Amino acid sequence: MTRSEKLPEDLSGRPFTVMEALEAGLGERRLNRPDLMRPFRGVRVPVQSPSPFMPDESTTSIAATLRRVHAYQPLLRPGQYFSHLTAARLWHAPLPQPSSDTEPLHVTARAPKSGPRMVGIVGHSANLGQRRTGARYGLPVSNPADTWASLAPLISMDDLVAVGDSLILIPAIPRRSDLRPFTTIPKLAEAIERTSGRGSKNAREALRHIQHGAESRPETLLRLLLARAGFPAPLLNATVSDSAGKWLGRVDMLFPQWKVVVEYDGDQHRTNSYQYDKDITRIEDFERSGWAVVRIRKRGLFVDGAGTVARVDRALRSHGWMPPPRTVGH
Fold first, then answer.
1. pLDDT, tens digit, for every residue of 128-174?
2. What is the pTM of this model?
3. DSSP 244-308
4. Torsion angle, CA of 197/198/199/202, rounded to 10 degrees?
5. Angstrom distance (rounded) from CA 234 to CA 260
6. Which among 272, 231, 270, 277 is positioned nearest to 254, based on CA atoms?
């Protein structure tokens, strides 16, 4: 590239609109060079353009979404904001599918204006009273509660509960860079009142099952699976101590009356040898203190739910739990 073909300084290193480029004196031939990506109609992004949202431990899972919102940002008009699935990604909601470079962005405009229409964008329109906005990574987004309510027609009931659990979570180890909780159960209820049409019924039902304590989507899905099987409600992410009061660890689900622990083992328990060794020692401590430990893996949750229910049933019954008698209708 010759010196005359370099981008103007105010356009280099960031996404820009075609209109900005034309006003800066760039021609169509320059805008079509391979060093400029075209993620959306009317936008160019220098190949070497760094996103201002530098991925860290908390953002790598949504890196694809961050790249796309960064690219679309120059096209945002006053009153428009990211919403629905896109906002859910930005709030780190545990959605069933991972973030990808092909997932459309959801953009809402405040009525009476219509949402944008173009390839790669799902446009929406909402009254100010129906959707309330906030800020995330310096971007205008729907607030966490309204984001959750907007997902009701788009994802399953169980996943809606999992997103709600995540948004109200108060982590055991808070992160200064990401203050939690993002919202509260009362605010979720208020958001439902601002919601109409498809999904409002699902949102009301999901709200009944949202609970404090679940720290991951699998933990929520496992809790719902066990609840549907008729087991008593466990304590979530509770601590376990031995008979002398010595702290043994924190567990996903605890049935203290029957001394039963249920743990979901994610991939980190298998791939991280330090974590794996630590888990073995911890479980030995539990069992030595009289606790039954049921460890559930991915297959047990997503493929063989019946087998998981049977394993938990055996553990509870062996420690004295008896299911309540069924009521026979007359």
1. 655 578 889 889 999 999 999 999 999 999 999 999 999 999 988 88
2. 0.89
3. T--EEEEEEEEEGGGTEEEEE--THHHH-HHHHHHHHHHHHHHHHTT-EEEEE-HHHHHT-HHHH
4. 90
5. 9
6. 231
Provide the residue ranges of all domains of the chain, joining segments of one domain with +: 3-46, 75-207, 217-318
Cα–Cα distance, 293 to 314 (Å, whole number): 11
For residue 316, what is the enclosing H or E element? helix 305-318
CB 283 within 8 A of CB 293: yes
Place of tokens 């049933």: 313
Task: Identify the CA nearest to 20 among candidates 6, 5, 31, 29.
Answer: 31
The CATH topology of domain 217-318 is Endonuclease; Chain A (3.40.960)
Residue among 136, 213, 209, 210 nearest 169 (CA): 213
Tokens of 151: 């997902």
The distance in angstroms from the start CA to the end CA of the chain is 85
Helix (H, G, I), strand (E, B) or coil at 81: strand
The span from the CA of 240 to the CA of 291, in Å, is 9
Q: What is the DSSP letter of 93?
A: -
| SS3 of the chain: helix, strand, coil, percent, to 5 | 40, 20, 45
**Cα–chain-centroid distance for residue 289?**
36
**CA 141 to CA 107: how far, in whole Å?**
9
